[in-house]
Amino acid sequence: MSTYDNFTIEIDGDGIALVTWDMPDRSMNVFTQDVVDEVDRIVDDTTANDAVKGVVVTSGKKTFSGGADLKSLETLLGTFKKMRSELGEEAAMSQLFDGSRRMSQIWRKLETCGKPWVSAINGTCMGGAFELSLACHGRVIVDDDKARVGLPEVKVGLFPGAGGTQRVMRMTEPQGGLMMLMQGQHLKPAKAKSMKLVDQVVPAAELIPAAKKMILDGLKPVQPWDQKGFKAPGGRIHSPAGYQFWPAATALYRKMTYDNYPAARAILKSVHDGLQLPMDLALQVESRQFAHILQTPEAAAMIRSLFVNMQDLNKGARRPAGVPESNLRKVGILGAGFMGAGVAYVTAMAGLEVVLLDRDIEAAEKGKAHSDILISGRIKKGRATEAQKEDLLNRIKPTADYADLAGCDLVIEAVFEDRDIKATVTRATEAVLGEDAIYASNTSTLPITSLAEASARPDKFIGIHFFSPVDKMMLVEIIMGGKTQDKALAVALDYVRAIRKTPIVVNDSRGFYTSRVVGTYINEGHAMLAEGVPAAMIENVAKMAGMPVGPLSLNDEVAVDLSWKIIQATAKDMGDAYVQRPQDKLIQTMVEDLGRLGRKNGKGFYDYPEGGKKHIWPGLADLVGVEQDADEIDIEELKHRFLAIQALETARCFEEAVLTDVREGDVGSILGFGFAPYSGGTLSYIDGMGTAKFVALCEDLAAKYGDRFKPNRQLVELAQAGETYYGKFPPEGAVEAAA
Ligand code: NAD
Fold first, then answer.
1. What does pTM read for this prediction?
2. Is the sign of the CA dihedral 620, 625, 629, 634 positive or negative?
């Protein structure tokens, strides 16, 4: 038998070939062109070798495999675009179709080779690797709480194109299968077994013996769907049960996606059509959908932003070169309130020692109790142990004494949003801090440069802006003050990496990047309300555009009185130049006369009945006083307004160098405030539409709704030159695939 670079093969006395996937120079197994070529050869070699009675495939790494290397997929898309321009659409398409279905065909060859294959899944097994396992005749998985299987492709705009859609739906009941595919769910071993997607869950030591035993016990090398009389668990599509299920499935798809995600739609279509066909034809249907999806702007944009860009940022793309890795051990947190308590938890979870300081020990203890609540919740779900809880809580020292901050490598301030209080705690902290320690503020609105005026060492003063809830939100916005130096940035980035979140680095500005853009979204909701667009329509259309929550709902979460404060501050700053807007009065009345402050006091744009579901405040329409006829409102225009105003504000941030890297604009907008993920983020939204078309849209909206839609100079110049953001400002090492 020939030798392989990425696999080893050992044939035992029973004639069972153990194929171990173990890529040299990589910590994880991933599918590359070479790996796929070698699997192809292994299937041929083991089939041709009479000494082999059956095959067990496993991994030599800690986990099985994370699936495909999406970076190489991005390159494939780049090649496709190039070929299309050189050879024409048809030739390029046929290449893409053949290339993209290669795995599917090899997995099918394995499934029909006549010898039994069993996948011994020793840890997490995702994407193409799980599809390979599904093509095997048996699957055994390790009984490990950390192991997961799944087909998560839909999360980056793709779908499982190597037989996953067809095999899952032939193995499990249709509702669970479809949800797993359309949501890209990760399944624990026990769940995968209950869904019949694996046959056995066994302790690690028994994994290979159990897989071999399946073969020795006479595992049939023919899949159920290749046997006469096979019926999928959900029955036939054209049957009474099918007529009940499929219309409901389509409705559910619409509810989940608002038809914004072509990949989810393609899953539904390929499952629906494929289930009516024998396997070989079904796989062809799936491949056609896959080749189509590969070319959608949504897939290209999502792969670029949610995989490539995010990975770049996580790996430290913005870390200044030449600053040695920081050895973070002890982090101080000032203020043990809502944010400080959350920051303490994620920091201690990362294994760092935490000093949590508040005005008195009771407040500090209360902040620490938050960690107890969160980890106890994890224990209940089986995700943590009592011993881990004890370790975690031992790492957090609550205090009211500044002396305890001595020896901290980094201090993060999260006290009240008050300039004087922040200045006082900065001075008190610096009095005990070591010379090299970095000081960060979690302020959401106060410019870092001005807060650093209270510091004796503004070069070591930086913004580390968390989002709430801290334990759930994956983004951290790092803000460079006017005098912040590289060392502070490097430490901040090392810290964000340690707590396993994604950083973006922005320059100082009112609201920085994320809050500034979110502000425009909320403001657009207010403007629509004042125009007489029904509140329910505002909220629903925002979700149709791809936003996770409506602007009114979001405003209730962040507090309506904060909006009123911002309106007043802007009016004060602009003086006579400020033009009163119809919504200003509305927000003032809500806050000052009616005390409707948002979720925090149970009444805002919504009412929050105790124990009941929130609903739009019935008095809102009367307060507004005008209501347009919903049937006369142009829904597409409302959607455009929501997305365009945010994209435009991002373009302004980019021109002002608040943002300096296009990747951060995109990733920050999706992770920070859920900007329509299918678009790839705010700048990809503009590039995807085309800068010229976007400028035309903004001009049109400006004529109707005011100067806030007026495109900025740099954007207009890009449009005139026929350029895109990614084309004109390519980040280091990025591939231009989505534009
Ligand atoms: P909070 O009121 O819940 O907590 C503030 C804590 O600071 C309180 O426990 C208070 O006792 C403590 N504190 C006040 N003065 C102090 C002093 N002199 N010394 C020590 N402790 C003191 O507020 P929060 O929502 O946690 O906000 C804290 C900071 O985080 C603010 O700057 C805010 O702008 C920012 N922030 C908040 C959010 C959010 O969603 N709430 C998001 C991002 C950033």
1. 0.91
2. negative
Residue 682: closest CA among 698, 700, 666: 666
Locate the ligand 1 atom nearest the alpha carbon of residue 416 and give its number.
5
**414 touches ligand 1 (CB under 6 Å):** yes
Cβ of 243 less than 6 Å from ligand 1: no
Question: Which atom number of ligand 1 is nearest to the Cα of residue 366?
Answer: 9
Question: What is Dmax (Cα atoms) for the chain?
Answer: 90
Location of structure tokens 């340690």: 498
For a mutational test of ligand 1's pocket, the pick from 370, 415, 444, 470, i.e. the residue with the most ligand atoms closer than 8 A to its C-beta, is 415
d(CA 395, CA 392): 5
What's the CA gap between 233 and 109, in Å, rounded? Answer: 24
Residue from 333, 334, 338 to probe ligand 1 pocket by mutation (most atoms less than 8 Å from CB)? 338
Centroid of ligand 1 to alpha carbon of 326 (angstroms):
27
Q: Which amino acid is at 380?
A: K
Compute, in angstroms, the gap from residue 617 CA to the centroid of ligand 1.
Answer: 29
Residue pair 298/168 in contact (Cβ under 8 Å)? The answer is: no
Q: pLDDT, tens digit, for every residue of 272-281?
A: 999 999 999 9
Between CA 642 and CA 652, with CA 648 as vertex, the angle to 5 degrees is 145
Is residue 461 helix, strand or coil? strand
pLDDT at 570: 85
- Cβ proximity of 606 and 612 under 8 Å: no
Q: Ligand 1: does its nearest atom lie under 6 Å from the Cβ of 518?
A: no
Q: Could you give the angle at which helices 386-395 and 361-380 cross, rounded to 10 degrees?
A: 160
Ligand 1 centre to CA of 667 (Å) is 26
Average pLDDT, rounded, for the chain: 94
Q: Is the CB of 335 under 6 A from ligand 1?
A: yes
pLDDT score for 736: 42
**What are phi and psi for residue 11, nearest 5 degrees?**
-105, 125
Nearest CA to ligand 1 atom 29: 414
Long-range contact pairs involving 310-316 (C-beta distance under 8 Å, separation at least 24) = 310/502, 310/667, 310/671, 311/71, 312/663, 312/731, 312/733, 312/734, 313/502, 313/503, 313/504, 313/663, 313/664, 313/667, 314/497, 314/502, 314/503, 316/493, 316/497
- Atom 42 (ligand 1) nearest CA: 467
In terms of DSSP bridges, do strands 475-480 and 461-465 run parallel, antiparallel, or are they unpaired?
antiparallel
DSSP state, residue 307: I
Query: Which three-class secondary structure state does DSSP give residue 67?
Result: strand
Bridge partners for 396 per DSSP: 354
| Residue 435 CB partners (closer than 8 Å, separation 6+) | none
Q: Report percent pLDDT > 90 for the chain.
A: 86
Which pLDDT does position 72 carry in this prediction?
66
CB burial string 701-712: b at 16+ within 10 A, e below: beeebeebbebb
Distance between Cα 336 and ligand 1 center (Å): 7
Q: With contact defined as beta carbons under 8 Å apart, do 560 and 738 qualify?
A: no
| Tokens found for residue 336 | 């043990």
Q: Please name the helix (run of DSSP H) or strand (run of DSSP E) that holds residue 19, with its range, or none.
A: strand 16-21
Strands (E), 449-576: 461-465, 475-480, 502-507
